[in-house]
Amino acid sequence: MGFYARRILPRMISAGMRNKAMTKHRPRIPALAHGRVLEVGMGSGLNIPWYDHKVTHLFGLEPSTVLQAEAAELAAASSPPFPVEFLGTGAESIPLERASMDCVVSTWTLCSIPDLERALTEIRRVLKPDGQLLFLEHGRAPDAAVARWQDRLAPVFRGLAGCNPNRQIDASIEAAGFRFTDIERSYFDGPRFISWHFSGSAVPARK
User: Can you give the pTM of this predicted structure?
Assistant: First the structure.
């Protein structure tokens, strides 16, 4: 991993995650979490203040040491009513027991995971049979013209920010063995090639 990926990109991500649209919509997903919670791609910890007393333990999965340090500072400053434990690995290999989490939270993360299929398999593994995947993600738009622009721009986004703006997030979640209990698909404010969003909850589908 080069200097850009280790030092510059994490700071770009931290700054970008504070934009107006994300700040507006961010609170809704962590507020739904309860019990033992894993946040995938915790970043600089911007979700931490929005978890409440329903959470008993929060695990923050974040491979970037730069972002993990920022999240630890924010956790210390906000003093949440639950312990926060950091895990420094990627989502493709989650160091937690099978069926040990009540909720997994993912906000603007699934676009950036290199092996999304493997990560969703891991998320399903660590969730309890009645656990919830709570998500807020951007991805492939339903409008053909917008989707074509997403395909054209994907290599640029991937190279600069590690983001794949054209992923069909809802289809990927279902293909990994989840069933939606609630899902909203809509444009948020901002350029259409990055503002189509999927938000809601899913549970492991019964085999």
Answer: 0.93
